[in-house]
Amino acid sequence: MSLFKARDWWSTILGDKEEFDQGCLCLANVDNSGNGQGTEMLHLAVLHSRKLCVYSVSGTLGNVEHGNQYQMKLMYEHNLQRTACNMTYGSFGGIKGRDLICIQSMDGMLMVFEQESYAFGRFLPGFLLPGPLAYSSRTDSFITVSSCRQVESYKYQVLAFATDADKRQETEQQKLGSGKRLVVDWTLNIGEQAFDICIVSFNQSASSVFVLGERNFFCLKDNGQIRFMKKLDWSPSCFLPYCSVSEGTINTLIANHNNMLHIYQDVTLKWATQLPHIPVAVRVGCLHDLKGVIVTLSDDGHLQCSYLGTDPSLFQAPNVESRELNYDELDVEMKELQKIIKDVNKSQGVWPMTEREDDLNVSVVVSPNFDSVSQATDVEVGNDLVPSVTVKVTLQNRVILQKAKLSVYVQPPLELTCDQFTFEFMSIPRVIQCKFRLPLKLICLPGQPSKTASHKITIDTNKSPVSLLSLFPGFASQSDDDQVNVMGFHFLGGARVTLLASKTSQRYRIQSEQFEDLWLITNELILRLQEYFEKQGVKDFACSFSGSMPLQEYFELIDHHFELRINGEKLEELLSERAVQFRAIQRRLLARFKDKTPAPLQHLDTLLDGTYKQVIALADAVEENQGNLFQSFTRLKSATHLVILLIGLWQKLSADQVAILEAAFLPLQEDTQELGWEETVDAAISHLLKTCLSKSSKEQALNLNSQLNIPKDTSQLKKHITLLCDRLAKGGRLCLSTDAAAPQTMVMPGGCTTIPESDLEERSVEQDSTELFTNHRHLTAETPRPEVSPLQGVSE
C-alpha cells in the first residue's frame, strides 16, 4: 500500500539471541538532561520475573571518541514472592510528588509498592490469565482485559479497602472483618483478546482508553462507553496513540505482521510506511533536536530510529559575490576538461578496476592428482574411464557478510558434483569472480598422431620451436627424439587431435577431423608457450595467425545449429496440435460414455490410440532434438572460441578488444527456443558495425530492431560476421566508446606456408597464396558432418 519506506536514522542489534516483547522498550529523559518530563528526577524501573529494581541513571560527557558514558546506580529493589507479568505506575490515590508502582503477577495478584515499602496486594476476581494493565490518573483506576475478553476497570480506593490477598488463608470470620469484597467499576465486552492498553489524556477535560485487539482497535471513554472503533484487515503487533495537530482528534501508530506501520487520525488512515522488521513495541520521541522520531523494537532485538517522508535538505548554498562571467575563459576550461575526459575514456579498460582491497577474496586451488575413486556420474564414455578432480575454493572476508552465495560454472559437457553453496553468517550487493584452469588430462588422453586430417590451422611465433615433450609432459606416446615435434591427443568420446612443431621454421600446426576440436589444443598450446617463455625470462614472445579465416567451416556449424532449432520449433508445434487433438477425442469419448443411451464409438477408440502413439513419438523426437541441439550448441561454442582466438592473433588485438569479441559472440550460456544464439549474436555484431566499426556517420544513424526474434535463415548473420572481419582487416578498432576510431593502415595478411611435418608428411614446401574470405583453401572446404563429440567447449 505504501509508496515509501521508513527512513532509517539510526539502528542497532541488541544482545545476542535475545528475545523482546512490548514491555522491553522505554523512551524517556532517564538521565535527566535538558528539559525532562514528569517529576524533577526520573528513575528507571526494571521488572524481572521475581524482582523489581529501580535505578538512577547519570551521564558523563566523554572527552574521547567513545562518546558519553552512563552509569546506573541501584536505588532500591523488591524481591517478589510471585512471578511477575507486567507493571504500571502513577500517582495512585492522588498522591502528589511521587509515583507508585503496581505489578500484576501471573496468578492474578495486583501488588502495590510505594518506593521502598510494600503497600498491599489484591487478587482480581474470576482470574485465569494475565492481560495488559494500565492506570488512568483522571479516574484513579486500573484498567485491564480479563480472560472473559472484556475490559475491566477497578478503582484504586476499592483495591485499597478490599480484602488483603495475604489473608485469604484465614478463617471466614477474619476475612469478613478485614476488608470489603473487590468489585469492578465497569466492564465492556470486546469479544477478543487484547494486545495492549494505553490511556491518553491530552487535555484536562477528557481522557481516552485505547485498546488494541486481535482484529479491532477500540477507543473508550472514561466510563467504558465506546467512542469509536476500527476493524483491521491485518494482524496487529503493537500500537501507540499520540497527540494530533488537529484539535479534538488523536493520532495512532499501529504496526502489523506485514512489516507495515499505519498512522490513523481517529479511524482515518493518513499514512502507511514499510519497516524492515516486525515491531513488538513502538514509541515516538525527540532525539538530538529531531522531533517525531519513530523508535521500533523487534522480537529479535532490532532497534531502529526512523522518520517518515524524504531526507531533509540540510545544505544551504553560501552567498557568493556577484561578478561578471568571462565566457572565453570558461570555453578554454571546458575544452581542457573535455580533453581529459576523452583521454580517460580511451585509456581505461573494458572492466572497471578497483584499487582498494576487496571485502571478499576468492581463490581456487585445483588438486594436482585425480580422485582415487571417480565422482563422475557416467564413469565410462565408450571405452574410456571418466576421471574427476577436486577443486578447493577458499573465501576470505574482511567484514561480516550475510548469506554469501558461491556459484561454480564449467562449460558443458563438464559437470560438477555441487555448483551452489550458501554460507550463513558471512550485506553487500557485490559480485566477486575468480577464473581457474582445469588439468588437460581431465578430458584428454595421450593418443597416436594422425598423418592426415580434414582441418588444419597454423600458428606462427617469433621464437624457436619448443619441444612438445616439455610443453605437454605426460602426453607423449613415444620418447624417441624423432617424435619430439609430433604429439597426439585423444578426447574422451573418440575425437583425435594432432599437434606438430616445425623443425625448420617457427610454426606449430594443429589438425583434426573435426573443426571444433581444434580450439582446446590450440588455446592450450598458446597458454603453455607463454608460460614457458615467461619462465625463461623472455618478454617479447608473440603468436600470430597469417592464414585465411576459416569462416566457411564455422558457417557450416552455424547452419547445423540453426537447422536443429527450426526442426525443434516444428516438432513442438506438431506436438501441440496432436495434444489438442488427443484432448478433443477424450472429450468426445467421455460424452459417449456418460450418455444414457449408448451410441457406437465410430472408431474413436482407434483414433485415440493412434493419436496417443503419435504424441509419444513426437515427445521422444522433441527430446532427441533437444539433446542434439545441446551438443550442437556445445560444438558451436568451441568453434566460436577458436574463431575469436584466430581473429585476435590475426589482427593482434588487445585483451580488451578480445573481451569485446567474446561478449558479442558468446552472450549466452544456454540456448533456448525463446532466445537463441543466432539472433543475439546478430544484434551484437550489428551494434559493433553501427558504432565503433562504422564507415561513416550515415551508418551510425541507422536504427537497429529492438526485438530479438528467430530469423528466417542465417544469411544475414553470416554476412555480418564476414563484414566484421573485413572491417577489422581494414584497420577498424573495437572499443566501447561511442567515438568510432579512425581507420588505421594495416598490412593485409598473405598466404600461409605449409610446415614440413617430419615423417608424417613429405618434406615439400608449397606456397599457396589464398584470398582472404572468398576461397578457403588453407582449410579443407568439403567436410563430412562430424559426429557429436561429448567433450568440447571446456572452460579454463
UniProtKB/TrEMBL annotation:
Any one of the GO CC terms: BBSome
Region ranges (Disordered): 773-796
GO BP annotations, alphabetical order: cilium assembly
UniProt-listed Pfam families: PHTB1_N, PTHB1_CtH, PTHB1_hp, PTHB1_pf
Residue span, PTHB1 C-terminal helix bundle domain: 653-728
Keyword tags: Coiled coil
Coiled coil: 320-347
Domain PTHB1 N-terminal: 1-37, 39-312
Recorded superkingdom: Eukaryota
InterPro entries, per database record: PHTB1_N_dom, PTHB1, PTHB1_CtH_dom, PTHB1_hp_dom, PTHB1_pf_dom
Residues covered by the PTHB1 platform domain: 439-546
Record domain PTHB1 hairpin: where: 548-651
Alphabetical list of PANTHER family matching this protein: PARATHYROID HORMONE-RESPONSIVE B1 GENE, PROTEIN PTHB1
Protein name: Bardet-Biedl syndrome 9
Organism: Mandrillus leucophaeus (Drill)
Lineage, highest ranks first: Eukaryota, Metazoa, Chordata, Craniata, Vertebrata
